[in-house]
Amino acid sequence: MSGPGGIDPTAEVNDRAVVVEDLTRRFGSFVAVDHVTFDVRRGEVFGFLGPNGAGKTTTIRILAGLLVPTSGRGTVAGFDITRDTEAIKRNIGYMSQLFSLYNDLTVEENIRFFSGLYGVPRERREARRDWVLEIARLEGERRRVTGELSLGYKQRLALGCAVLHEPPVLFLDEPTSGVDPISRRSFWDLIYHLAGEGTTVFVTTHYMEEAEYCNRLALMNRGRLIALDAPERLRAGMREPLLQIRTNASARVVEALEKTPEVIEVGMFGRAVHATVRDLSRGRDAVHAALDSRAIPYESIEEIPPSLEDVFISRVHEEGGAPDE
Amino acid sequence: MSKARRILPDPMRLRAVARKEILQLRRDARSMLLAFAMPLLLLVIFGYAITWDVRNIPFGVIDRDQTRRSRDLITTFQSSGYFTLREYLDRPSEIAENLYKRREMIVFVIPPDFSRDIDAGRQAQIQAIVDGTDANTATIAISYTRAMIQTFALGNIRVSPTRSGLPIRAQSRVWFNEELKSRNMIVPGLVAVIMMIIAAILTSLTIAREWERGTMEQLAATPVTRLEVVLGKLLPYLAIGLIDVILSSLLGVLLFGVPFRGNPALLMLMSFLFLVGALGLGIFISAFARTQLVATQVAMMATYLPAYLLSGFMFPISVMPGVLRVLTYVVPARYFLVVTRGIFLKGVGLHVLYVQGIFMLIFSVIGLTLAVRGFRKELG
Asked: What CATH number should be reported for the domain holding residue B98?
């Protein structure tokens, strides 16, 4: 509820597309979203990164007007998320986690259906349809039944259908989940294209490399926002040095370093192990000692810049909990 | 949901939903069969299977008289079409055995002095032993027997004025269903029962399908209102329902020879009211069931038995126990049944059927309201 001293929609509409304060959503005793506060600037590609069950989908559904928050307040495109959900729906595009166009309709029929629902004026319809066919690269497939398309094409078509009415804000819930890397890349090109035209894009993902593409990134775990900044600043903001140990015995290295007091956090990355230490030189010595004393073979130990995944693990650790599996 | 929701449906969105529904329906063979073949199939099956006419009652005879008169009596029974002679029995002890085995339903015992009594002007007697297991048919068999005896008596006995029985004779004329064919009553009734079931099942699939396939989330994220979704989904099925009524009426007239004496336009108007309610009920069920399987089953349960048993189709409402009679008022098929029978057989107009019209109008308002209220755009 917006009261005195609360959110003034007119002020936000100018520079902030989404404003959220103390947003909470419970399902019974389960707290899916736990007092989350953030805002999204207009024209920004804003990422929500977190493991499954972190509360990303619940948050995006609340912002899209599909769920009512248990408490907290916020606006999307200037409209209140508890009172003006129908106005929000006219001003946003939304793409749900699972493909949800009609598989038994043709490409063109799906586009036409959503044009109708979004009230695209008749004189604009043809132009918008052609635009969607173009960005989805389905110009020659307009009469194909949608169910026959590959997931990459489907997702681009779904994105096109979600922005038929040229909404100022676009919500994408794990749009590239299950899509092959090349299609994923081309999907992100599309996101940039839309952002370049002034659309605010709010996107959730659990792919770390995709998170790098965002202007700003919110890290979410167990319903809580554990960090929010530009990806490079998040990495730079990691206070403790990070060591990478190259080895053929990752599992044994992890096991050994977990018992080493100088090491704060250990993570396995294939044939490398990342260890966050309190101090660079003492940490390096401690790791050497731990591995040598147990006769665990390794190729090298060197300091590396942290990846987003390291940042995520480190932040989760600071919060005092492991990410949900 | 916003309180300041637009009340009237937006024509563009309504058209989009209706158009999509038609496209999907056209590509779904199962729904097409359900929509067009099912009502006619049910009508043919039930139209032939259900009959309350009693014909060809199998009977046996122990003829102790063995005269021309006794044989004439047996011929009277046989040639009526209502009775079929199975066999002559020799001993009374065979009667029970034959009734056990259901070889005969009725056995006549003609005593030795049958024709002598008639010739002497005395009252002759025959005995009829009836299998009363099926009380209804037994009652009919007995009354047919009386009628046969009457026919026989008129031709064989010179009635003396002093012994002609009661001085008053009832002359009955049957109206509306002159030949008393039960089919004439069953077929129009079936149209009502079948439309109730088909309408509810057809729409029960629509919203559950959206939930099942995950398309509901995308739909819910658009500005489309609940009323637009409900009406958009309902309109194509309303058209189908009206076509079904026309087709089954034609089938009833052409195949079963049922008279159609009323105004077809009135039947359409009444069907419209009835179908809106039944289709709305299906959408309401669909919104709660969330899977197509559960939705069809619930729709079947909610419509089939009430429409079949409590609408007056099987049993006249006037003879039902009080509690059931009250219950029939909430069975919408009850009203539509009166309408179809009235229009088919009696040819009555709105001046009689307006009562049913009002009840069906109420039903359609309730059905629509339930559908719109039951359908939620929020995700749980």
From this structure: 3.40.1710.10
pLDDT digits over B109-149, tens only? Answer: 999 999 898 888 888 889 999 999 988 888 889 999 988 88
Q: Are A177 and A184 in contact (CB under 8 A)?
A: no
How far is the C-alpha of B245 from the C-alpha of A4, rounded, in Å?
Answer: 60
Residues of chain B contacting A99 with CB distance shorter than 8 Å = 214
8 Å CB contact of A67 and B378: yes
Q: Name the closest residue on chain A to residue B20, using Cα atoms.
A: A113
Q: Does the residue A51 lie in any domain?
A: yes
CA atoms of A60 and A77, how far apart (whole Å): 14
Candidates B3, B20, B26, B28, partner chain A, best to mutate (most A CBs within 10 A): B20
Q: Which sign, positive or negative, has the C-alpha torsion A87, A88, A92, A98? A: negative
Q: Give the residue from chain B lying closest to A122, CA to CA.
A: B12
- Considering only CA atoms, which of A214, A203, A200 is closest in space to residue A169? A200
A83/B2 CB distance under 8 A: yes
Q: Are A297 and A255 in a shared domain?
A: yes
Q: Beta-carbon neighbour count of residue A284 at 10 Å?
A: 18
Q: Is the pLDDT of residue A11 over 50?
A: no
Query: Has residue B349 been placed in a domain?
Result: yes
Q: How many structural domains compose chain A?
A: 2
Out of B131, B163, B195, a domain closes at B163
Among candidate residues A173, A205, A230, the one where a domain is terminated:
A230
- Please report whether residue A1 resides in a domain: no
Q: How far apart are CA A97 and CA A204, in angstroms?
A: 9
Q: Flag if A105 and B24 touch (Cβ within 8 Å).
A: yes
**How far does B223 lie from chain A, in Å, by closest CA?**
5
Contacts of B222 in chain A (CB under 8 A): 89, 114, 117-118
User: In this structure, what are the phi and psi dihedrals at residue A28, rounded to the nearest 5 degrees?
Assistant: 65, -125
Going from the C-alpha of A35 to that of each of A76, A82, A319, A323, B133, the distances in angstroms are: 17, 16, 15, 18, 74
- What are the tens digits of pLDDT across the range A178-222? 888 888 888 999 999 999 999 999 999 888 888 888 999 999 999
From the CA of A293, how many Å to the nearest CA of chain B? 55
Rounded Cα distance, A56 and A97, in Å: 11
Same domain, B30 and B72: no
Taking each helix axis from N to C end, the angle separating A280-293 and A250-258, rounded to the nearest 10 degrees, works out to 120
Q: Do B217 and A66 touch (CB under 8 A)?
A: yes
| Residue A258 belongs to domain spanning | 239-305
The C-alpha of B322 sits at a distance from chain A's nearest C-alpha, in angstroms, of: 45
In a domain, B77, yes or no: yes
Instruction: Report helix, strand or coil for A292.
Output: helix
Alpha carbons B27 and A100: distance in angstroms, whole number: 18
Query: Based on the domain organization, do B159 and B228 belong to the same domain?
Result: no
CA dihedral A153, B220, A94, A11 (to 10 degrees): 170
Q: Which of A98, A99, A117 sits opposite B222 (nearest CB)?
A: A117
**CB contacts, 8 Å: A83 with chain B:** 2-3
Structural domain count, chain B? 2
Chain A CB within 8 Å of residue B22 CB: no
ipTM of the complex as predicted: 0.80
| Chain B residues lying within 8 Å of A105, measured CB to CB | 20, 23-24
Which helix (H) or strand (E) segment is B60 a member of?
strand B57-63
Residue percentage of chain B with pLDDT more than 90: 58
